[in-house]
């Protein structure tokens, strides 16, 4: 494969499934298969489904770094003030397909249907290589969750992150994702990032208003993950993990919580729920 340096037309942002610029034709991109390596860099790929509501918040993900596979899930019960989570090597109890997220674990069983859309895709340079990502915001998620034998019907808004990238050996980023309602009653969702896929234009940064995506400009995250520009965040339960697997080292914090203040573009929130994240990876 030719070096990304010689590819014109990056960064690129568009609707997934629509024709891309001819200059991107030499790149392997979804829905086609991407090679396991670009040069010496292994493929880093994942699907993350985050579902955020006033009663329950949860996430389900499957991750690949080169030949290694990992899966994780977490459920934050805001009423019971209880966080449950598990991370496993391989696929574990997690199944993710188009329109479906399923967890069949010892004390948590979950099946969610996802009303997916085409989503916003972006293709950006990644320190001499390239990164592809597709984001969907405000996706309707509904289904059933059983915790300790107690079933509950669940419906809320979701953010879905599909990424396949040849990121640099050391990659550090901040991320925020959530759903909510603006003070004027419009449904909103957001995907904000700094550190990856974040050029001034044609980035993955998106705010959805009544289902319509709008790119927003670069944003600045608080070091303590308490906000992004004028968007404030109140953490409630924190997922944290440090791993040292010789060739792969990773440290991240991802708290669930509530949002207030203003989204980029000056949209004042009446309510908002989601996650903030800081991730530092050597891979």
Q: Which percent bin holds the helix content?
A: under 10%
Beta strand count: 21
**Unreliable residue runs:** 1-5
Q: Mean pLDDT, rounded to whole units?
A: 95
Described by strand count, sense and barrel closure, the largest sheet is: 11 strands, antiparallel
Ends distance: 21 Å
SSE run = EEEEEEEEEEEEEEEEEEEEE
Q: Tell me what portion of residues adopts beta-strand conformation.
A: over 45%
Radius of gyration: 18 Å
Structural class: mainly beta
The tally of helices reads 0
* Overall body shape: globular
Your description of this structure?
The protein has 283 residues and is mostly beta strands. It is 0% helix and 64% strand. Strands 1, 4, 5, 6, 7, 8, 9, 10, 11, 12 and 13 form an eleven-stranded antiparallel beta sheet that branches. Strand 11 (120-126) and strand 12 (129-147) form a beta hairpin.
Quick structural gist:
This protein has 283 residues and is an all-beta fold.
Based on the model shown, name its key terms:
globular, eight-stranded antiparallel beta sheet, mainly beta, 283 residues
How is the topology of this model organized?
Elements: E1 12-15, E2 37-38, E3 41-42, E4 44-52, E5 56-65, E6 68-77, E7 82-89, E8 94-97, E9 100-104, E10 108-115, E11 120-126, E12 129-147, E13 150-165, E14 170-182, E15 187-194, E16 206-209, E17 212-215, E18 227-228, E19 231-245, E20 248-263, E21 267-282
Antiparallel strand pairs: 1-11, 2-3, 4-5, 4-13, 5-6, 6-7, 8-9, 9-10, 10-12, 11-12, 12-13, 14-15, 14-21, 15-16, 16-17, 18-19, 19-20, 20-21
């Amino acid at each position: 494969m030719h070096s990304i340096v010689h590819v014109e037309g990056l960064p690129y942002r568009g609707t997934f499934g629509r024709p891309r610029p001819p200059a991107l034709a030499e790149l392997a991109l979804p829905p086609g298969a991407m090679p396991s390596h670009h040069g010496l860099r292994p493929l880093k790929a994942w699907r993350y489904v985050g579902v955020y509501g006033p009663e329950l918040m949860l996430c389900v993900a499957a991750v690949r770094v080169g030949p290694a596979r990992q899966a994780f899930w977490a459920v934050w019960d805001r009423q019971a003030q209880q966080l449950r989570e598990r991370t496993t090597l391989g696929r574990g109890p997690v199944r993710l397909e188009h329109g479906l997220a399923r967890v069949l674990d010892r004390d948590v069983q979950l099946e969610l249907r996802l009303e997916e859309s085409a989503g916003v895709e972006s293709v950006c340079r990644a320190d001499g290589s390239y990164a592809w990502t597709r984001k969907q915001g405000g996706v309707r998620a509904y289904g059933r969750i059983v915790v300790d034998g107690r079933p509950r019907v669940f419906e809320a808004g979701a953010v879905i992150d599909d990424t396949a990238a040849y990121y640099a050996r050391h990659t550090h980023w901040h991320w925020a994702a959530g759903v909510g309602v603006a003070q004027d009653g419009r449904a909103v969702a957001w995907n904000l990032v700094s550190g990856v896929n974040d050029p001034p234009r044609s980035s993955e940064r998106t705010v959805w208003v009544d289902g319509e995506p709008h790119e927003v400009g670069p944003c600045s995250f608080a070091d303590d993950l308490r906000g992004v520009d004028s968007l404030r965040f109140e953490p409630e339960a924190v997922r944290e993990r440090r791993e040292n697997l010789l060739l792969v080292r990773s440290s991240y914090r991802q708290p669930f919580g509530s949002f207030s203040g203003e989204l980029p573009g000056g949209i004042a929130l009446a309510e908002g729920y989601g996650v903030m994240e800081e991730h530092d990876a050597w891979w």
